[in-house]
Amino acid sequence: MAAPAVSALILLFARAVTAVRAIWSHDGPPTRQCVYFANHSSHGDFILIWTVLPPRLRRVTRPVAGAEYWLRSWLTRFIGRDVFNAVLIERERETRTEDPIACMAQTLDGGASLILFPEGTRNQGDDPLLPFKSGIYHLARSRPDVEFVPVWISNLNRVMPKGEFVPVPLICTVSFGPPLRLRDGEAKEPFLDRARSALLSLSPHAGETP
Amino acid sequence: MTDPRSQLLTLVFGIVVFLVMATVIGQVLQRRLSPNGTNAGIENLNARIYAWWVMVALLGLAFLAGRAGVIALFAFCSFAALREFVTLTRTRRADHWALAAAFFVVLPIQYYLVATDWYGLYAIFIPVYAFLLMPIVSVLRGDTERFLDRVAEVQWALMICVFCVSHVPALLTLQIPDYEGRNVLLIAFLVIVVQMSDVLQYVWGKIFGRHKIAPKLSPSKTVEGFVGGVASATLIGAALWWITPFSPLQAGLMALVITLMGFFGGLVMSAIKRDRGVKDWGHIVEGHGGLIDRLDSVIFSAPIFFHIVRYGWSLT
Questions:
Q1: Among its keywords, does the record have DNA repair (chain A) (predicted)?
Q2: How many domains does chain B have?
């Protein structure tokens, strides 16, 4: 009951601070179920993707997030589970009771789309994009028909750099690339490289020498 | 004609008739010449007309809400403009608090000072106090890389987006004898003259334009467009003398100053855009550019117009 109100407030706040705008690939917003994979430099990343998705897509799109982080208090649990409807996965290999890939695959079987950050952690260095973890490949292997849509989030790390708690209003954009799919017999490294360069090519500085 | 309400109604009626005609002409031209959105000139014209409707609706609502409404509207414009401007600056993490202060301290204080009519302070608050305070906030982080560039960029952002824009609602605080209760008409005069000048320069340039006036900055601007646009907007300003405290000649001269400042302001703002390699300041309405793209001429003319009126006509 409170969740839709909180979600509307969060969307409004995100728009007020970032005036966020989607740049779709030439086919427009995705028409079928997919896995969005994005660069990760801020806690607000998935909120921006969620904000720019048309409502009918937003309703069926669930972020994948770390259970340890979102279950640590009643407030984060409320926001993570009830507001964002996140798919919470256990990241600690030693202590976990559920396989994250199986968990995501089940969610896809239920008809939902996913938002995934394949870098696995927030990128706080100078590299535009960290190496991908292999989870995205294993997910593609287990559901080879699902499309993976690269999503580049620009500027949000300037809005709220690490360690700051007051956001500076700046215009952010969220760019969606054409979907890609696991090819027959494609191995892990080539797939991860292909996905990573598809994502990097959406960044505004693609093609520039630093 | 001296009753403020009937004057405002006459003006609003005139503007609505004008916009309806402009809309009809724009639609007919689009059907005939650009059915698939291929004629850039006509698309641009219709985008402009659409923006005018929004502008008139917003200004109308703000006028109805009185001084608080007008101040709130321009405070919001400042916020959105500053958001666009700072997005294009090359600030570093060390500027985070200075930027947050620009948005959440300097901007509200400036508009509060305007609202309380504290002229002595709002005229210098940004160029003195904010300009001294912001580099202090930045320097405390100890990051000296491109320090002067960063400080200058943030200061200019505040000057353009907050200081200059706040002089539009400040027109409401002037006390002009025999003009009580009609100050909103000064805002209407400023905005109409600037908008007419922009569009007439464009139209004159399209029809008669031969010689480029600033090929490096704004390849579409021509000498013919500039002269024709400024002259016709000046005449429109003179013809609007009845909504102002000026005589027809004074109204024409005011309009001339406004259009000249607006023209050069447009050049300065496009130089900044070129420096940063962007075509538009933002995308506040899809396909219609940013707020600064619509406001750039008003930004440069507002403080000058304010000071001339204050010096020549106001009691304070």
A1: no
A2: 3
CA distance A8 to chain B (A): 20
Are the Cβ atoms of A168 and B100 closer than 8 angstroms?
yes
Residue B104 touches partner A, C-beta closer than 8 Å: yes
> Mean pLDDT by 10-residue block, N- to C-terminus, for chain A (210 residues)?
86 91 86 91 87 90 86 87 88 78 90 91 82 90 91 89 86 92 89 92 66
Contact A45, A58 (CB under 8 A): no
Instruction: State whether B91 and B160 are in the same domain.
Output: yes
DSSP category for residue A131: P
Q: Which range of residues forms the domain containing residue B142?
A: 71-173
A35: distance to nearest CA of chain B, Å?
27
Same domain (yes/no): B168, B187? no
ipTM: 0.84
Contact with chain A for residue B284, Cβ under 8 A = yes
Nearest to A105 by CA among A87, A128, A121, A90: A87
pTM exceeding 0.90:
no
Do B4 and B75 reside in the same domain of the chain? no
